[in-house]
Each structure stands twice: as C-alpha cells, then as structure tokens.
Input
Amino acid sequence: MSQPLITDKIQQMVSNALKQAQQDGLLNLETEPDIVIERPNNSENGDFATNLPLQLARATRINPVKLAEILAERIHLSDELAKIESAPPGFINFYLRDSWIQKQVDTIRHAGSTFGDVNVGNSQSIMIEFVSVNPTGPVHVGHARGAVLGSTLANILSAAGYSVTKEYYINDAGNQMNAFYNSVHTRYLQLLGETREMPENSYEGEYIKEIAAEIIQSDGEAFASSSPTEDSILKIREIGLVAKDMMLQEISKDLIDIGVDFDNWFSESSLFQSQEYEEAIHLLRSQNYLSEREGALWFNSNIEGGEDEPEDRDSVVIRSSGEPTYFASDIAYHHNKFLKRNFGQVINIWGADHQGHVARMKSAVQALGINSDSLTILISQLVTLKRGNELVRASKRTGDFVTLRELVEDVGLDACRFFFLTRAASTHMDFDLELAKKESSDNPVYYVQYAHARISNIIKLASERGLDWTTGNLELLNNPNEIHLIRTMLRLPELVDQSARVFEPHHLPHYAVELSTAFHSFYENCRVVSANEEDNEISLARLKLVQATQVVLQRCLQLMGMNAPESM
Output
C-alpha cells in the first residue's frame, strides 16, 4: 500500500498558508499557483524548500523575501517538521525532525516490498510498447537498451499506481518479411544440396543457416520444390511462417534472459486480417485527412498545423502500387490501441532511426480524434560497446551487430540492466564491457550488490547470535551517518513519483549508488553487531536500520529488474 509523500504534506501546508495570507488581506491571487517542493542542493538549507515567493513576487507585487516571511509565519510546525524559515532571495526552507526521521525506520520495515509505492496513476490504464524487433533476426544491443528501459519503466509505473500492459509489436507484414522468408528458403535448399544464389536484399547471418538446419531436422524436405511455380511461392511462405515462429521464440528467450517479458505480443499482420487497417484508413478519409496524389494516398499532416516541422510533412500512407507503408500500419495499430482497447495513455519506445517519425505519428493520432498528449514516444539512442578503449563491433552470429545473447553471456543480466539504465534514453551511451565485469568498487553494479550482500551477512550473523532487534529503540540512532542513511532511504518514494511523472527510469541506478554509499559509510563508522554487552541496545537499534536498508535496496534492485545477492 502506498504511503503519502512528505512532499505532498508540505505542499498542502504551503497551500493552506497561501489561503490564510489571502484571508488576512495580505495578498490577492486569482488562481492558486503550482507549488513545487524540492530538495535543496545544500543540506544546510533544509531537507526541502520551495521558491514559491520568487514565483509570486510579480503577481502579488510583494518583495519575495517579505512574501516568504508572510507564508513561513503561517506554516505551523508538525510531527514531521522541526523548523521552517524564510531565506533570501525568496525561499521557504523546511527541516525535518530527527525524531520523525528515526521513526521512519519502522515504517520502512513494515512496508517491506511495497515501500516506494505511490499513487500517481490512480489505476489508470497505460500501455508500454517496446523492443518490437522485426522477427527477421536476433535482438541486438541497441534493442536491448530499449528492452531494459521499457521493462524498468513498467516496474516504476506499476509501483506508481498505474495498470500497466507491456506489449511487443510483431512487425510481420511487408517486404522485410518476404526477404526473410526467401533467405531461409534459399539456405534450406542449399543445405539440401541444391545450387542456389542468395536473393537480393537477403539476410546473410549465420542464424539463417541455423534456422534452415533446424527445419530440415524437424520437417525434412517438406518445403523443397523443383521449379519457381505457384507451389514454390507457397512453400516459401510456409517455411517462412515456421521460421518466423522460431525467430520469435528465440527473441522471447533472449529477452527473458535479460529479465524482460510481455503481457501481449501483437501481430502487425492481424491488423489487415481483422479489417482494422481498413477501418482506420476509412476514418481518416472521412475526416479529409487523406488525399490522392500521383496515384498514391497521402496523409495531410498540415491540417494539424505541422507544416513548420520537417518531420511532420505530408507522408505516403498507400503507395501507388497499392501497398501500404509502415506508416499506414502504425496508424492502424494506434487506432487499435486507443479506440479498440481504450488505453488512457500509450508509451512507445523506439530506436534512434525512428526519430523522424515521431511528429507525424502524433499528428496521425490527433487526426484519429485522440489527444496527441496521450501518446508519448521515447527515443532510445545508440549504444557503443567498448572493452576499455577498444571498440567492439562484429558478431559471429549475425555478421555485423552484437546480439543481446552475446552481451548477456559476456557480462551477465545485472550488469546489462544497470549500465543500460545509467543514461537518459535520449543520450548516446558507451558500454564498457571490461568495467562491467570488474569485482571492485569501480564497477557500480558490484558496488551496489556488495552492499546488499554485506547487509545479508550482518543479518545472518545477528540471527546466529540469537539477537531480537524488533525491540530496538530507534531514538538511539543519533549518529550523523545513521540519520543520513535514513534520509537517503526516504528518497525512494519521491524518486518513484518523479520518474513515473516524467517517464525517466535512469534515476534509479544513480540512487542505488547513493544509497549504497550511505550504507557503506554507516557500516564503516557505526559498529552494528558488537561482542560487548554494553553495546546491546545500540546494536538492536542499528540492526533495525540495517534491515530497513535491505528493504529499500532490494526494492530499488527489483524496480531495475536486478538480483539482490546474499553473498559475493
């Protein structure tokens, strides 16, 4: 169950003070402003602060320092707050009580695996569509980044109170599938002893041979044909569909190996089979969003005022040959998402090569009668693999790109997930394979997981000695390292709240490092399990703190889809 955020409580206090100041005739506002409560960069300025007086200075014509004093005087101290003060050039600073901070250790312990839950989403339905690799080859490192971003964001949004659906969009229609089918069929015939040249624009990777060999093993010569007849075309499609299913199984397995699963796998070809494609096109046509030019059907994005943006220019929906473009399929797919399945919000995580498609997709969604703000598109930028200073480029299996499977085999699931999360999706990133395998504090993955292993060892030692820390007196936790650790733990719900609002999962690994640093500092400066009987009381209190830290660190690792090892 989610707990109210302390920032929400402070925000309400400021709102009440604002209303009181208006009742007292000291200021006049037509509408209540947005009240933002933030953590100051300098801890000397309190645990939280607001710059509301600075924001209101012009509207109220009151000096911001004076306005800060007026509001601060009308905010009363509470169980949570020890001090409230105004500060130039127009801030109100809030200082938490140590006694309240100490009590939060038990709050965290009792919350357990639900600690960090907030209620931003209020059970609203939200879909995240990510990865969506064409089933023509294995998942590569670029796709893997989107996979980790998407699955972590899904975890965060679930913790934030949304009803989340994770979806993989199977791009199984169009020319790329025909090329894949032909490639597999040709390799299949070659392995059966026929002399065949690979077709133009074929898939050349070793994995195509592996698929063809598996089909021979399971189906023998069932898909062989002696001449390019209609029967041959049919056999190409038949073997192609078998190969597609095999490829999807491989993709699914690779993704599960990195901790990514999906609630739904949605086929692009189903849009054409179910007539949903025609329905979406008819809707756009009836609203005059489509026009014929040069034998092709175009989407008139300029109706939405997008002429100034080059990405938003008119786009072909149906080619002069009568073949739909991938843009047409995407329109039908979003028609299905919003109007058939009624998702309140949709998030697409696309690769860097789709950047130019963002504006016209949002324009098309608007044309379907859907608020374009309901669609968020996150672009996952490129990844450069390095081993120290050396670039890693080639893959034996594909011939060009490094696969997700190869990466996981090299550095492991946890390193993959952590490193992919360390940068915002919109930022290009370097992935140092050498660093990811280091067993030292230089490797943030090792550093964080070692903190959890150390905690587990402490709890194990205390249990072996028969210590019952449930009676620990939290008022004894007065050491600055103890208080700092608790303060750091209390940031997780705020982080979930913030990350869910802006769809940014990359804050989690940085927080995990900060939490681990706070714990390591506490451990080095505060002896937890002591052999001296006179230290028993403080040991019990500190064991409560250690257990609470384990709760928070485990939750953070769980949100990132990582393991929490008990020993290393």
In short: The CA atoms of residues 216 and 386 lie 38 Å apart. The domain at 6-96 is CATH 3.30.1360.70 (Gyrase A; domain 2). Residues 230-256 form the longest helix (27 residues). The two ends are 32 Å apart (CA to CA).
